[in-house]
Write a structure and sequence with these properties.
This is ABC transporter ATP-binding protein. This protein is α/β, with parallel strands linked by helices. It has eleven helices and 14 strands. Helix 4 crosses helix 5.
């Protein structure tokens, strides 16, 4: 549905994308993860036909068509990172304008406002909207067509709880309906909740592509067990270190890094050693820290 084939984009001497090859299949949600300037927005704009690659091709739809062609653009819906609408219009009038531009049925206006959780604000002028409400209005416009390809650039930026729920529901519905979704985000929660795969960009290059299962495994492997014990038996630190390199005893606190199996084994070891646990906490690995490892080439 979305295919990047060795795509590069240069602005003078600046390389925004370098040899990107990536495919988003039907019924799949893929997240682009990376810092500012990593090429995420350029990638989405190339898919939307708004940026022409210096090298390579971007193909959309079935059968595949070059992204810059009008027929390809008809297959997609795009929510840019920053949206703006005439402040004198009401939210409903904005959605109605784009609904007519798309040639869609009249019922789609109410449906889109409902999807974006803007039902009660549709009659208000855009000039009275908060930044988060303007973002939700952009989401309503993006939700109008049942386009096979959905491109979302930082869709949860500035959103409240209702707005977050609207974005999540839209992405989940699109996956269920067999559409292809490509989105960018700085929010680990968005990526972990929505993405079937995560593409990590650094300096315009794709440095890692992780499936949901592999991502979960990597995060689990970077988990940590923290336990406070009443008494630290002699030699406990050495025994834990043999089980999990990096394990440490700091005063009455035991810290054991590792996956769920390693952490369970550490608890068993504590019980066998007679170390009575007073306080216990288990943490999964953090996506932002994993990204830093991937960006540094330590994956």
């Amino acid at each position: 549905m979305i295919r990047f084939e060795r795509v590069s984009k240069r602005y003078g001497r600046h390389v925004a994308l370098s040899g990107l090859s990536l495919e988003v299949r039907r019924g799949e949600v893929v997240a682009l993860l990376g810092p500012n300037g990593s090429g995420k927005t350029t990638t989405l704009k190339a898919a939307a036909g708004l940026v022409h690659p210096s090298e390579g091709t971007v193909m959309l739809g079935e059968p595949p068509r070059p992204a810059a062609e009008p027929d390809a653009r008809r297959t997609l819906s795009y929510l840019p990172q920053k949206v703006a609408f005439p402040e004198a219009l009401t939210g409903r009038e904005v959605v109605e304008f784009y609904r007519r531009l798309r040639g869609l049925g009249a019922a789609r206006t109410d449906e889109a406002l409902h999807v974006a959780a803007l039902n009660g604000a549709g009659a208000r002028q855009v000039g009275t909207y908060s930044g988060g409400m303007v973002q939700r209005l952009g989401l309503a416009v993006a939700a109008l067509p049942d386009a096979p390809v959905l491109l979302l650039d930082e869709p949860t930026s500035s959103l409240d709880t209702a707005g977050l729920g609207a974005v999540y529901a839209l992405a989940v519905r699109a996956r269920r309906e067999g559409r292809a979704v490509l989105f960018t985000s700085h929010q680990p929660a968005d990526v972990e909740r929505l993405a079937d795969r995560v593409a990590v960009l650094v300096g315009g290059r794709l440095v890692a592509l992780l499936g949901r299962g592999e991502l979960a495994e990597r995060l689990a492997a970077r988990g940590v067990l923290r336990a406070r014990v009443e008494r630290v038996p002699p030699g406990l630190g050495e025994r834990l270190a043999s089980l999990a390199p990096g394990a440490a005893v700091e005063g009455d606190q035991v810290v054991v890094p590792g996956d769920a199996r390693t952490r369970a084994a550490a608890l068993q070891l504590l019980a066998e050693a007679g170390a009575r646990v007073r306080q216990l906490a288990a943490e999964e690995g953090r996506l932002d820290l994993l990204y830093q490892e991937l960006a540094g080439g330590d994956a």
